[in-house]
Amino acid sequence: MNHAKETRREGERLHINGADGAMESGTVAVPALHGLEGDESHSLPRDHTQAILETTKQVASLLKMSGYPFALAGSVAAHAHGVPAVLKHDTDFCIRHEDVDGVVEALRQGGVEIVPAPEDWLVKARAGGEEIDLIFELAHRPVTSEMLESAPVLPVDSVRMSVLTPYDLLSSRLAALSEHHCDFGPLLTIARTLRELIDWDALRAEHQQEPLPDAFLYLLERLGVIEPREPGEARP
After folding, report:
1. Which of 59, 145, 146, 152 shows its CA 20 to 30 Å from the CA of 166?
2. Exposed, middle or buried by CB within 10 Å (0-12, 13-18, 19+), for 11?
């Protein structure tokens, strides 16, 4: 059999081993290589994490100019606090219910698209191809002025903005746990990374009557992430 090796680019002069083993010279048609620089049809996928961060910066800049209080929430807030994360979904901001109309108008004037949402606890928007949630209730708890005032200002990919405290970030995630949504994985990463910044006694007192949050806190004890309850402290 004649096994000719095809190499390099189309139309390039090659040396090919013929059937008798002799070296033959000639111009052969070699399939063009795809997926290289300049071939837009096979370009690499864009960095979704960076795309979400760019949208976060755009929205935060508009919110800061509007004067309405806000705080970054969700996975991007965890990322701002140093929690390792690959951002995949959207960017979340907490705002007060009484500020919704003003915030929506400020974002709309800034070129952000406001989209219909079936939920009655947030407003949805879109910019740069990414989804934005403007949340005024966290796990059925109203976003308060005190919550937003306590949010530290942190750099998020070079833009400084208010970010939910680690306590409020984790507490809201615990309050959202249900029998239909009970993924401890992301919560465990947040707890491990931010454990020195969270008042665990206060978190226990807030959630100890709720079975799923309390189960997560007990898991943290068993894993050695946080100190266990005092021996005389009864479990609910």
Report:
1. 59
2. exposed
